[in-house]
Amino acid sequence: MDIKVLRDNHKLLAEYKYELGKIDKGYTGRSLFVNVSENKIESKPVSQMMKDKFVGGKGFGLWYLWNATTPSTKWNDPENEIIICGGPVCGITQYPGAGKSLVCSISPATDMPIDSNVGGYFGPLLKFSGWDALELQGKSEKDIIIVIDGNNGTVSIEEAPLEAVDGHVLGEQLTEMYADNEEDKRNVAVVTAGSGAEHTRMGLLNFTFYDPRRKVARLKQAGRGGIGTVFRDKKIKALVVKFSSVKGDLNNPFDQGILNRTGIKLHKEVHDLDPKQNNMRKIGTANIIEVMDEYDLLPVMNYQYGSHPDTQKIKSTVFIDKYITQGVQDGCWYGCSLACAKAADNFLLKTGPYKGHKVTVDGPEYENAAGLGSNCAIFDPEGILELNFYCDTYGIDTISFGTATAFAMECYERGIINKEITGGLELNFGNFYSAVELLHQMSKGEGFGVVVGQGIHRMKKLFVEQYGADADFLFDIGMEQKGLEYSEYGSKESLAQQGGYGLTNKGPQHDEAWLIFMDMVNNQIPTFEDKAEALHYFPMFRTWFGLYGLCKLPWNDIAPANNKFTSEPAKIPEHVQNYLDIVYGVTGKRLGTDDMVRESERVYNFQRIFNIRLGKGLRENDKTPYRSMGPVTKEEYESRQERYDTQLKEKIGYDITGKTTEEKMSVLRSYREDQYEKLTDAVYKRRGWNSNGVPTIEHLKELGMDMPELIEVVRGLQ
């Protein structure tokens, strides 16, 4: 449809004018509040307390969300908010990976706070337009867009009845609508969800960045926890921000020279070492597909197995040689020389409403290839790319879709559900056409796709209540925890990674702790205390990225040449110091590693108490499905029998002579579940929590987080 026709049918509902102001050491000093029920727009001050205790990014998001909601607030209540905040470092152009923003809301999947990090231009341009954060509340009656014009100092709410909903179309429409010309398109960033987000609990948000080489608005995703579902429930169709004249000093940093020197050092490392290390500039995160398969860590057929002979059909070189465009700088914010945001151009779609269209597919990343591919036994690169595209444009989280579909496939193959229940879909492992049909059904709110779109937590309940399934078996094979689907790593042989998934605040997402190689391959953390220390430091360190607006990939997907000779190579100490230097350069705060951890601890403990306030966040909520710990079925055990038999003999001292597989499985299970409980005890102790997972008042005082509203929540649970 003609852009002028779309624009002419907008109806201005509210407009707010503001002075552009000036950023000081990474902060604008104010946040933008928009209530779409009342069409209310206002500025809110950012206090020194917020900067001291919550820093920015995820911290600001959780603080605003806490104050907007009550212990009884549900995800679809008007008072639930979506908060987008980049943090004080967000937007610098000197150091790779400094364009991240964090999105927070109460999740439709978990009924708790969720945070999801995302690239693209929206976060930095929001700050440069004068706002440290954007706080969205209320529910509109009709589809609207919110437009932030940082050039002219205006914010508007506009009724937008005719635009598309799906991400790749709407992103293009609004980029063209609000750009003055082709060159100006780089100054426009759009946030959308999609038609699938309207009918599922796993909706994502797409954040655009305009690619002038491809001449297309590309998409990055805030994928986890269903925030896109909240977005569409509020009838928000899109957010638009426009700001011209991006420069490297717009954060008005404390010391620009430090940023320049630190960035140049890392750019040289990337140039010299990336081709010898992870090849991020060629393939991005998909570089580890075959690595995970080699170490028996790739999820295969709903995490039953860790490798498969057909993985060679979807290994990274297949995507490099046949699909991923090479020779194009693919950073999703200015100055990111790691450039991991890969894309397949002119990809011909075979199914769905866009069948026959040639599109740009942003991916695949490792999580997409593993979740949409091996976990569903779809060892077809073009099938993976098609699923990847439709997940993105429909606004469906690829991780949750892949893991939930794999669960449904296993239930189908085991006869727990059948063709009558699925509405005719043959959900066998490897059936690409049934998987993609689920996606198309989600976009329309039809068929069995609606059931799968509710996620594994709710599917388990439905299958037990309506189809007589065994609840214990479904708990064992249903790879979700706290209502969030597992991301795509097999954790059976890594106790630390089991904790890295199970002992998170938001659910099993690897962005808190990825410890598989430290634990399983290199045996660097052998004792419970060692594992507990790792499960304290790494979640805090990774939380810290989300406070400041940083991407974690330049931390450990490129390493200095001498890193292996350092005392703690897994921490990449030279890069940790880089980040401390960058924060000093922007904010003037001189932090050490202990200060870094302490900043994160304040926010991490706050989030734990937030969960408790909403009726979760206790030890019982940290229980994990057994498949994340060990073999659930006879087939799983016998596929790795030598390994498991050896462990029974050497680790437990169990005599396997004459024992059945079922007897051996029972003993192994008791041992592994006991190990997880002991790890939980050790981690809670290290984090300053009691045996039920509740932060102690003493620990809160030590952190300076003994705020009355927090003490009120935990006092009766000490």
Automatic annotation (TrEMBL):
| Cofactors, names only | [4Fe-4S] cluster; tungstopterin
Keyword NADP included in the entry's annotation: no
MF terms (GO), sorted A to Z: 4 iron, 4 sulfur cluster binding; electron transfer activity; metal ion binding; oxidoreductase activity, acting on the aldehyde or oxo group of donors, iron-sulfur protein as acceptor
- Keywords for this entry? 4Fe-4S, Iron, Iron-sulfur, Metal-binding, Oxidoreductase
Report domain Aldehyde ferredoxin oxidoreductase N-terminal positions.
27-245
Q: Does the keyword Iron-sulfur apply?
A: yes
Q: Which family does it belong to?
A: Belongs to the AOR/FOR family.
Q: What is this protein called?
A: Aldehyde:ferredoxin oxidoreductase
